[in-house]
C-alpha cells in the first residue's frame, strides 16, 4: 500500500469515527443484549458429557491417517505434535462438512418429498429441553403432512441430528473443536453468519474456520468472496469476548461507517467488562498469559489491516444453502477458492515411481513361468483384494491375508510371492507365512508411508489388470514394454502452475499417482500452463501420460504443447503437440510417445491451449500427469 493510499484510508477512518459520534448510541445495552446469550452458550462446549458424545461420532483413526498423509505429501514424515494437531483440525473440518446436512426446506418426515414453509409453531417440551425456542413448520407438497424443524441451540442435540443452517453448523463444530482440545471461539457476524476460530500453535495465532464452507484461514472470505458489508464481528469463548472485525476486512473505514449500534469506546468498555467477568476465577498466572496473547492479537489485527499479502487469492461466493436463497442475500459470487500466484511445490512422489517399477518383476515372473493371461490377471486380482482389505483397516494395524481361489491355488500364490517383494517394499509392507500355509501381508515400516502408497497401488493395479486382460498371451514382446510396464517415471521434481484450486486442486495433485485428486486451474479453459523442474540430472523425455479427472468432461484438456528446457526455463524447445484430443471416460489414461528425440531437459512445461468445451466452462482439470525418461 502506497503512502498516499494509506493517508486516504486513515482520513476515511477519522471521518467514519466522527460520523459514528453523531449516529451511534453511548449506551451499549443493545450490543450486550445480542452477545450475552452466546457467553452462556459457549460454556456448553466445556461440558465433559457433551465433549464425549461428540468424540464418539468421529472416525478418529481415519482422520488421523488423513492428517498424517497430508503432511507426508509435503515431505513431513516426522511431524511434531503441534503439526499433527493442526493437520487433524483441518481433517476434522472436512469430515464435518461431509457429515452435517444443510437445511433449506426440510424433506417431508412422512414421504420424503419437498415441503413449503408455513411459518412458525410452538415448541414442544422435548424441543425446549435442547434450546429450541423457535420451530419452523413446513407442509409437504405431496401428502400435506406438517414437518417440524426445531432450531436447536444445544450442541449435544446437534451431534445427534447433524443438520441445520450456519448457526447450528458453527455451534456444533465449535463443540467438536473443544472436544479434541483446541482452544476455540464461536464467531458471530451481525450481518447474519456464524463460524469458528481456533488457536493454531503452528501459526501462532487464531485461525478462521467456516464449517459450512469447509474453508480455513481465509478471513476475507466474507468481504471479498461473499461481498458482505460487515459491521460487528465478535468472537466469544470461555475466557472472553473479543472484537475481531479487523481480521475480516481490508476496508476498515467502510466497516466503521456501518458500526452504529454503539460508539467504539462504549463497545470496548462492554467487551472488557464481559471478558473480565469470564475470567473472574482465573489465576494470576493464567490471566497474565491471556493478556499477553490479547496484546499480540490486537497488534496483529492492526498490522494485517494494511496487508495486501492475499491479493492473488480469489475467494468464492457462498456455497452452502439453496442457490436462490444465496442470490437473494447477495452472497452468491464466484464458485472457487483459487490462487493466480502459486508457490513452487515439491512433488513427494518417489513412491509412485517405485510402485510402477515394481510391476516389472511380477510380469517377468509371469512370462518366465508361462502363465496364461487369465491366471496372471487372477493373481493380480488376488493381490488387489488384499490391498483393498488393508485400506479398510486402521492405519497402525494393517494385516490381511492373500486368499487363493479356484483359479489360482495356494501353491501358485506361494510360487509367485517372491516376485511381489519389490512391490511390498514400495508399500512398506512384508509377507509372512504361518504354519497353516496362509500368507499374510502386514506393515514392515512407517504406517504413514503405507497409507500414502496404498491408493497409488490400488489404482495402478486396476490399470494393469485392465491392460493385461487385453493381451492375447504372456510373452516378452507383449508384456515387457511401455505402456504396460511404465518404467523410468520422473519424480521428486518441483511444480509451478499458472493457477490452482485451493486446497484440493493444487498443482502437485497432478503428480501424486491417485484418482482421488486432480489439478484444477479455475481460469485455464482458454490457456494455462504447468511446469515440472527436475531435482537432479538432465533427462530425455520419451513419453508422457495424461489421465482425465473424476467429473466435468468439458474441462478436459483438448489441445496442448509439451516443451523442454535445458537452461532452467529461460528458453524452450517443443517436444510434442496435440490437438483435438478427447477423453471418452473418467479416469481414462492416455499415453503419448515423444516423436523428437535426443533433447535433454531439466524443466518440462505443458501449455494447455483449450479444453473440450470452452463455451461452458472457464476451468481446466487434469487427473494426473506422468513423465517418462529414456533409461540411462
Description:
With 632 residues, this protein is of the alpha+beta class. The protein contains 19 helices and 29 strands. Strand 10 (233-237) and strand 11 form a beta hairpin. Helix 4 packs across helix 5, helix 7 crosses helix 8 (166-179) and helix 15 (373-392) runs antiparallel to helix 18. It is globular and about 90 Å long. The model has no long low-confidence stretch (mean pLDDT 91).
Q: What strand line-up does the widest sheet have?
A: 9-8-7-6-10-11
| Average pLDDT rating | 91
The class by helix and strand makeup works out as alpha+beta
> What's the main sheet like?
6 strands, antiparallel
Helix content: 25-40%
Using only C-alpha atoms, the radius of gyration works out to 29 Å
Count, helices: 19
The residue ranges in which pLDDT falls below 50 over 5 or more consecutive positions are none
What is shown here, in short?
The chain has about 625 residues and is α+β, with helices and mostly antiparallel strands. The protein has a six-stranded antiparallel β-sheet. A six-stranded antiparallel β-sheet has the order 14-18-21-27-23-24, with no helix packed on it.
Amino acid at each position: 500500500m502506497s503512502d498516499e493510499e494509506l493517508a486516504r484510508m486513515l482520513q476515511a477512518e477519522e471521518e467514519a469515527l466522527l460520523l459514528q459520534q453523531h449516529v451511534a448510541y453511548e449506551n451499549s445495552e443493545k450490543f450486550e443484549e445480542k452477545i450475552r446469550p452466546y457467553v452462556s452458550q459457549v460454556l456448553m462446549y466445556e461440558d465433559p458429557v457433551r465433549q464425549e458424545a461428540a468424540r464418539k461420532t468421529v472416525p478418529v483413526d481415519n482422520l488421523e491417517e488423513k492428517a498424517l498423509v497430508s503432511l507426508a505429501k509435503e515431505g513431513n514424515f516426522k511431524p511434531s505434535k503441534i503439526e499433527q494437531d493442526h493437520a487433524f483440525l483441518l481433517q476434522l473440518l472436512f469430515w464435518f462438512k461431509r457429515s452435517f446436512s444443510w437445511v433449506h426446506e426440510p424433506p417431508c418426515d412422512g414421504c420424503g418429498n419437498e415441503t413449503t414453509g408455513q411459518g412458525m409453531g410452538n415448541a414442544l417440551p422435548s424441543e425446549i429441553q435442547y434450546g429450541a425456542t423457535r420451530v419452523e413448520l413446513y407442509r409437504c407438497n405431496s401428502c400435506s403432512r406438517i414437518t417440524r424443524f426445531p432450531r436447536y441451540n444445544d450442541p449435544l442435540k446437534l451431534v445427534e441430528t447433524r443438520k441445520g443452517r450456519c448457526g447450528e453448523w458453527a455451534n456444533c463444530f465449535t463443540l467438536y473443536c473443544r472436544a479434541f482440545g483446541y482452544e476455540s471461539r464461536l464467531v458471530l457476524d451481525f450481518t447474519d453468519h456464524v463460524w469458528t476460530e481456533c488457536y493454531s500453535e503452528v501459526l501462532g495465532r487464531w485461525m478462521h474456520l467456516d464449517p459450512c464452507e469447509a474453508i480455513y484461514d481465509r478471513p476475507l472470505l466474507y468481504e471479498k468472496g461473499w461481498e458482505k458489508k460487515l459491521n460487528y464481528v465478535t468472537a466469544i469463548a470461555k475466557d472472553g469476548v473479543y472484537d475481531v472485525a479487523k481480521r475480516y476486512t481490508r476496508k476498515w473505514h467502510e466497516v466503521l461507517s456501518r458500526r452504529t449500534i454503539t460508539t467504539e469506546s462504549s463497545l470496548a468498555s462492554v467487551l472488557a467488562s464481559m471478558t473480565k467477568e469470564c475470567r473472574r476465577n482465573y489465576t494470576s498466572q493464567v490471566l497474565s498469559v491471556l493478556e499477553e496473547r490479547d496484546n499480540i492479537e490486537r497488534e496483529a489485527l492492526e498490522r494485517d489491516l494494511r496487508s495486501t499479502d492475499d491479493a492473488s487469492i480469489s475467494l468464492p461466493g457462498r456455497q452452502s444453502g439453496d442457490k436462490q436463497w444465496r442470490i437473494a442475500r447477495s452472497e452468491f459470487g464466484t464458485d472457487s477458492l483459487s490462487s493466480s500466484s502459486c508457490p513452487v511445490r515439491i512433488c513427494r512422489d518417489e513412491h509412485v515411481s517405485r510402485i510402477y517399477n515394481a510391476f516389472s518383476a511380477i510380469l517377468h515372473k509371469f512370462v518366465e513361468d508361462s502363465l496364461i493371461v487369465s491366471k496372471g490377471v487372477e493373481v493380480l486380482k488376488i493381490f488387489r483384494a488384499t490391498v483393498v482389505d488393508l485400506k479398510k483397516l486402521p492405519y497402525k494395524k494393517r494385516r490381511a491375508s492373500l486368499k487363493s481361489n479356484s483359479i489360482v491355488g495356494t501353491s501358485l500364490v506361494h510360487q509367485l510371492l517372491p516376485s511381489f517383494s519389490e512391490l511390498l517394499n514400495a508399500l512398506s509392507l512384508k509377507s509372512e507365512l504361518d504354519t497353516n500355509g496362509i500368507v499374510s501381508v502386514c506393515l514392515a515400516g512407517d504406517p504413514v508411508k503405507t497409507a500414502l502408497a496404498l491408493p497409488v497401488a490400488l489404482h495402478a493395479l486396476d490399470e494393469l489388470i485392465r491392460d493385461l486382460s487385453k493381451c492375447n498371451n504372456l510373452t516378452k514382446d507383449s508384456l515387457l514394454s511401455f505402456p504396460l510396464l511404465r518404467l523410468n517415471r520422473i519424480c521428486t521434481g518441483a511444480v509451478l502452475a499458472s493457477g490452482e484450486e485451493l486446497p484440493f486442486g493444487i498443482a502437485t495433485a497432478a503428480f501424486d499417482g491417485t484418482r482421488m485428486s486432480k489439478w484444477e486451474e479455475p481460469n485455464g479453459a482458454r490457456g494455462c500452463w504447468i511446469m515440472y523442474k527436475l531435482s537432479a540430472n538432465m533427462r530425455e523425455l520419451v513419453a508422457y501420460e495424461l489421465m482425465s479427472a473424476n467429473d466435468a468432461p468439458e474441462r478436459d484438456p483438448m489441445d496442448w504443447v509439451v516443451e523442454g528446457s535445458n537452461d532452467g526455463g529461460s528458453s524452450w524447445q517443443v517436444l510434442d503437440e496435440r490437438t483435438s484430443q478427447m477423453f471418452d471416460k473418467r479416469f481414462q489414461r492416455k499415453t503419448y510417445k515423444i516423436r523428437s528425440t535426443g533433447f535433454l531437459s531439466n524443466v518440462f512445461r505443458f501449455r494447455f491451449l483449450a479444453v473440450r468445451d470452452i463455451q461452458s466452462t472457464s476451468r481446466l482439470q487434469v487427473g494426473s500427469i506422468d513423465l517418462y525418461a529414456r533409461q540411462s
